[in-house]
């Protein structure tokens, strides 16, 4: 009897693993525009201009995703990494990327960029304090769930490879807020630079030409946070 019950449980578990739209995902479709925390970091033209390799800095940290019904995603991320020993050495990163996503049979989600993503890093305590570099990282989340919050509505939870949850995402719209679904940034010609602290960066010629202008721009306002946030 116990053996039969155990076999039934295994069968049910396998069935759930094969269905990425199981009972945990029936609040709403993943298609739409999502943002974490204060919901200030939002994908689309109000965040990044890839052709010019520029960003419009949000007034709060966080992450935003958009998912379309034809398999495209877009990522916007702004975060600080604080240094408790040297508060003046806070590092700020701003990231934009887009590409294709896959909801796999085992319930995971894979985000694969198409190769034109980029990020800006501001690190006042390093030799190269403000620079651009390519960002094309495939993100894999072992699981995802959409629940309903009584106050904010649908919430998207992504779980990392070790099962830990990242900051929940709130749905801003059931439509994706995206830049055009094609390569938007010319990164064919690159310049590799080694900074004085040993950090190797890969930059486009466009970013190199604009480096002096960026250094003249105000740095991100530093805030007294003790950790980084989505």
C-alpha end-to-end distance: 48 Å
What's the helix count?
A: 3
Q: Which stretches are poorly predicted, pLDDT < 50 over at least 5 residues?
A: 1-19, 218-230
In total, the number of strands is: 15
What proportion strand?
35-45%
Protein name: Protein ROT1
Subcellular location: Endoplasmic reticulum membrane
GO molecular function, one term: unfolded protein binding
Family: Belongs to the ROT1 family.
Please explain how this structure is put together.
The N terminus and C terminus are likely disordered. The radius of gyration is 20 Å and the shape is globular. It is mainly β and 230 residues long. It has three helices and 15 strands. Helices cover 12% and strands 37% of the residues. The protein has one domain. The strands form three sheets. Strands 1, 4, 5, 6, 7, 8, 9, 10, 11, 12 and 13 form an eleven-stranded antiparallel beta sheet that branches.
How would you briefly describe this protein structure?
Helices cover 12% and strands 37% of the residues.
List the topology elements.
Layout: H1 2-17, E1 32-36, E2 48-49, E3 54-55, E4 62-67, E5 72-81, E6 91-103, E7 109-113, E8 118-122, E9 130-134, E10 139-141, E11 143-149, E12 153-159, E13 169-173, E14 190-194, E15 200-204, H2 205-209, H3 211-216
Antiparallel strand pairs: 1-4, 1-13, 2-3, 4-5, 5-6, 6-7, 6-8, 7-10, 8-9, 11-12, 12-13, 14-15
């Amino acid at each position: 009897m116990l053996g039969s019950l155990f076999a039934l449980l295994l069968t049910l578990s396998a069935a759930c693993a094969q269905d990425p739209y199981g009972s945990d995902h029936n609040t709403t479709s993943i298609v739409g525009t999502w943002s974490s925390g204060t919901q200030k970091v939002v994908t689309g033209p109000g965040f990044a201009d890839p052709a010019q390799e520029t960003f419009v800095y949000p007034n709060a940290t966080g992450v935003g995703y958009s998912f379309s019904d034809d398999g495209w995603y877009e990522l916007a991320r702004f975060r600080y990494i604080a240094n408790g020993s040297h508060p003046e050495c806070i590092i700020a990163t701003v990231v934009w990327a887009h590409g294709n996503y896959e909801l796999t049979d085992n319930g995971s989600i894979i985000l694969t960029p198409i190769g034109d993503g980029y990020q800006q890093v501001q690190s006042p305590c390093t030799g190269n304090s403000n620079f651009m570099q390519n960002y094309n990282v495939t993100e894999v989340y072992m699981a995802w769930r959409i629940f309903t919050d009584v106050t904010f509505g649908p919430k998207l939870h992504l779980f990392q490879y070790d099962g830990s949850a990242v900051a929940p995402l709130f749905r801003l719209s059931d439509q994706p807020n995206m830049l055009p679904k094609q390569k938007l940034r010319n990164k064919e010609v690159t310049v590799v630079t080694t900074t004085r602290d040993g950090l190797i960066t890969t930059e486009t010629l466009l970013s190199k030409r604009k480096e002096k202008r960026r250094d003249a721009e105000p740095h991100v306002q530093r805030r007294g946070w003790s950790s980084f946030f989505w």
